[in-house]
Amino acid sequence: MLDAAHSRPPVATEGIAAETQRLGFKRASHPQTEALLRTLAASKPGGTLLELGTGTGMGTAWLLDGMDASARLLTLDQNEETVAIARKYLGADTRVKFLLVDVAEFVQAQPASSFDLIFADCYPGKFYLLDEALALLKKGGIYVVDDMRPAPEGEMKSAR
């Protein structure tokens, strides 16, 4: 899976990576996760995808790279500074919609069975509200969680 033909990054990731490093953001997805995201997105042609935690857009770029022309991605975060980077490099793609929202509130307000694939890369849907987030999947949907390392105590409390 990690040979050069399958792990070639989307063009936008070079700029995203440089700005992510400049910002000091340390929660971007790992290369193995990114390649998996592209593959899983490709398995849902015409699908409705949800990303919980846009960050700087690294995972977003890989999801978009795997999606077909009729698939749609909704990506959520509440950090304007990181999402601005994602929008800068990916905002011209009409398949993606960026929302600056409280992710926990969004998850709790959505109707069940709304998404074909969910990539949970923030606290809601990963460390809490898991049942509510899983309920958003359509039958046959895929739920992906990244980076399950324990967060520092103060960081976890501030995320709730």
TrEMBL record:
| Gene Ontology MF term list | methyltransferase activity
Q: Which GO terms describe its biological process?
A: methylation
Q: Which Gene3D superfamilies match?
A: Vaccinia Virus protein VP39
Membrane-traversing stretches: none
Transferase as a keyword of this entry, yes or no, is yes
The UniProt entry, under Pfam families, shows: Methyltransf_24
Q: Does the keyword Ribonucleoprotein apply?
A: no
Alphabetically list the UniProt keywords. Answer: Methyltransferase, Transferase
- PANTHER family found in the cross-reference section: PUTATIVE (AFU_ORTHOLOGUE AFUA_6G01830)-RELATED
Protein name, please?
Answer: Methyltransferase domain-containing protein
User: Which organism does this record belong to?
Assistant: Ktedonosporobacter rubrisoli
